[in-house]
Amino acid sequence: MQVVETSSEGLKREFTVTIPADEIEKRVDEKLAEISQKVTLKGFRPGKVPASLLKKMYGKSVLGEVLEEAVNESSRKALEDNEIRPAMQPRIEVTKFDDGSELEYKLAVETMPEFEMVDFSKIEIEKPVAEATEEEIDKALANIASQQKTFAKVKRNRKSRKGDAVLIDFVGKVDGVPFEGGAAEDYELELGSGTFIPGFEDQIIGAKGGESVEVKVTFPENYGNAELAGKDAVFEVTVKEVREPVEVEINDEFAQKLGLENLEALKNAVKEQIENQFSQASRMRMKRDLLDKLAEMVDFPVPEGMVQGEYEQICRQLNPQAADEHDHDHAEGEEHEHKPVDDGLDDEQKAEFRAIAERRVRLGLLLSEVGAQNNITVPVDEVNRAIMEQARQYPGQERQVIEFYQNNPEAMNQVRAPLFEDKVIDFIAELAKVTEKKVSAEELMKDPDEEEGSEEG
User: What stretches of 219-368 adopt beta strand conformation (E)?
Assistant: First the structure.
């Protein structure tokens, strides 16, 4: 095997690899010899089938298998001999081969960048923290109570208003014809809840019990039922009762309805939940600040292939329509003109997304190297716990979800990656100087992007 480096530019390396014809022929003969010991042909004793006949029958398939093995082994050896750490799967292109001749192929690879490790002890960050005050607990209890509210028939038959509920019968029609799912009896509708399509509840406000109302609405263009989307409809509504909200008393009885012993137990549970939320938010803010500091401290070249992959992923998240069209074009066939995944984005957006992609790749490589140098790993039981949490989101399908992850290494890596990142972040935070800063709950839970926008404004 001969390996010649033909190009070296930045992180990109290219080699021409040549495997002699006699080596390929030797491998083919060895494979055919293996087959001869197993194959049974009429008129021949086992192991006595002529090599020429075997070559005629199995030569093409054996040659294909030999070439694949030869390319895999030689490319792996070429990378090892040149001490190359590939950033991504190398690109291989066969440039020369005829039956009976040498094999020549081009090996193109992007290498992992080399960089100096950051001195994490020089990093100074603030970690915002907030307390679960009595005010926060009371606010949370009031929110729970609002979700548990009930309605009672008004004592005197007055006009309904926003915040009331009405007990109604209704029949909906399009072009005078009732449609499936458009009728109900004894339906309790809270006015102002936005439960029904826009405009419906507004036309009920002001009606009394015993009155009939003709409600005219237009189904939204993006309505779930395509047969009704964008169409005008008329609902014949009979208001049977007007009901007003019953104030929920937050006491021991209320706590017991929620499965707790008393109000004190409910308050403790709510306090613990708030503290958990604050703790998560505090950590996320600290992590964001830490990553920003790291991004400022490191600057090394990153593999273009990794940046392009991350860029396309960002485009898929932020420009889903173009991504769907791009995937659809690919499904149409090779001769179809594919739309790029960033189709429809202007130059400023493309530049912004590419900068985000480059930052993510650079930080990802840094965190990966920190983890490798410090033997940071994610135990199997932690990965399994995360998978179980995912499975619980699909009641009745837990086994299928678990099997999907077990049989899909890429999906398993997507579960493991954020767990690994969190462990590395915690490791770095232990070395950095982290100062806690007391803030209000509102300030802690505020979106940092909104804060930046307000400061810029």
Answer: 232-246
Greatest extent of the chain over all pairs of C-alpha atoms, in Å:
105
* Pairing state between β 124-129 and 2-9: unpaired
Sign of CA dihedral 295, 300, 303, 308: positive
Please count the other Cβ atoms lying within 10 Å of the Cβ belonging to residue 166: 25
**Assessment of whether the complete model's pTM goes beyond 0.85:** no
Q: Which tokens go with 438?
A: 């007391």
Q: Any idea which residue has 């429809």 for tokens?
A: 344
User: 3-state class of 225 per DSSP?
Assistant: coil
- CA gap 263, 265 in Å, rounded: 5
Q: Is 68 helix (H, G, I), strand (E, B) or coil?
A: helix
DSSP classification of residue 118: P
Domain architecture of the chain: domains with CATH: 2-110 (3.30.70.1050), 150-246 (3.10.50.40), 301-456 (1.10.3120)
Contacts of 17 (CB under 8 A, 6+ apart): 1, 2, 3, 74, 75, 78, 104, 105, 106, 107
3-state secondary structure of 218: strand
- Check if the beta carbon of residue 294 is closer than 8 Å to that of residue 366: yes
Are 106 and 97 a contacting pair, CB within 8 Å? Answer: no
Question: Residue 455 — pLDDT band, cuts 50, 70, 90?
Answer: very low
286-336: per-residue pLDDT in tens?
A: 999 999 999 999 999 999 999 999 999 999 888 776 656 656 555 555 455
What average pLDDT is seen over the chain? 89
Helix (H, G, I), strand (E, B) or coil at 328: helix
pLDDT of 162 over the 90 cut: yes
Using an 8 Å Cβ cutoff, are 174 and 231 in contact?
A: yes
pLDDT at 321 (0 to 100): 64
Amino acid at 189: L
Residues 6+ apart with CB under 8 A from 401: 387, 390, 391, 394
CA 320 to mean position of chain CA atoms: 13
Chain centre distance of CA 230? 32
Q: How many helices (H) and strands (E) does the chain have?
A: 14, 11
Name which of 90, 95, 111, 24 is nearest 62 in CA terms.
24
Q: Which two tokens stand for residue 188?
A: 């309790």
Q: How far apart are CA 40 and CA 32, in angstroms?
A: 13
Q: Name the strand (E) or helix (H) holding 26.
A: helix 21-36
Q: What is the DSSP string of 70-90?
A: HHHHHHHHHHHHTT--BSSPP
Kindly tell me the sign of the dihedral angle through the C-alpha atoms of 176, 182, 186, 189.
negative
CA angle 216, 220, 225 (to 5 degrees): 105
**Closest to 92 (Cα-Cα) out of 73, 109, 67:** 109
